[in-house]
Amino acid sequence: MSIAQYIHKLLPPSSEITFLYQEDFDGDNQDEIILGLTNCETSPPNFSVFFISYNGQDLTHQCILTNTCNPESLYDESSGIEGIIDNAFVADTNGDGKSELIITLITGNGHFLTPYLFNWVNKVPTLVWTVNKTFYHGSLDVMDVDLDGIFEVVIEESIWYGKDILSLAESSPHMRLSNLYKWDGKTYKQKPFQPQDTDRIGHNISLYFLLSIAKAKYNRAYELIQLPYFLGLNGVDDNSFDSFLRYLNKNILPILNKNLEKGLLIPADLGYFKGEDNDFIFRWSKDKGLIKIHSITINPKNPS
User: Fold this and answer.
1) Strand pairing class (272-274; 266-269)
2) Which helix (H) or strand (E) holds 170?
3) What's the whole-model pTM score?
4) Which of 224, 226, 267, 283 could join 287 via S-S bond, C-beta 3.0 to 4.6 A?
5) How many Å apart are CA 88 and CA 11, to the nearest integer?
6) Cα separation of 83 and 24, whole Å?
7) Sign of CA dihedral 265, 227, 232, 201
8) Are 212 and 218 in contact (CB under 8 A)?
9) In whole angstroms, how far apart are CA 231 and each of 198, 202, 221, 247, 248?
10) How many Å from the N-terminal Cα to the C-terminal Cα in the chain?
11) CA 26 to chain centre
12) 127-166 residue pLDDT tens
């Protein structure tokens, strides 16, 4: 029987292949198969992940992970597994020369993400790492950030930052944080990391800036701007902190405070915030490798 025929026999009615990987996972110099299946006719969809390998000349399979109650699975509903498959990756994340399997599951109507990382211990797929939290609107990727030949796990999430001045809805553009997890010889240790999308970083910086000036933390806001660009031609002659304060007090703070007196700002898009009377539009660019704000356009809602 071919491998394809064997897999076809595993497929329950109404199931779809969610992911499929083929390589030597357990180091026996023979390729194995990792297969993810989802039954879309159930609600929520049931899924199963299988490890297919050779036992001598014969193919055999083991259910690794499922969100159903399945005593034959290594990890199932009774192990606390819930949600549906979001994504799956294979990459060498610990430097042993073999790929690990990383599966992300989502719960709460797709709002919360949890990662599960499997390594082969004595040739058995074993859950060796997860995170004791869920990531709101999370997304996961694997990348060799430091170019050492070993992949890191990078998880982005949204946080409800800025509620003092922002009216945040679930669909609003939130601040995005990145979490990097790198193998340290014993476990996957969290390290500081920045979102990779320039516009996401710019949006984060815009939020920091708005909250800083609203709370009179002007020194912090000053560090977030590109000089002299932010201050216009006047900044060519004087881009000092005092010059920045004068610019704020003349051009930004009176309008911002007037809008906040009437209600919270609504984040409409990345770097775009709507007030009762005015819209605030941020623009940013790279300055010596850092993303900094170079301008803020303030538009009246009802220009005369």
Assistant:
1) antiparallel
2) none
3) 0.83
4) 226
5) 19
6) 28
7) negative
8) yes
9) 22, 18, 13, 7, 10
10) 78
11) 29
12) 999 998 999 999 999 999 999 999 999 999 999 999 999 9
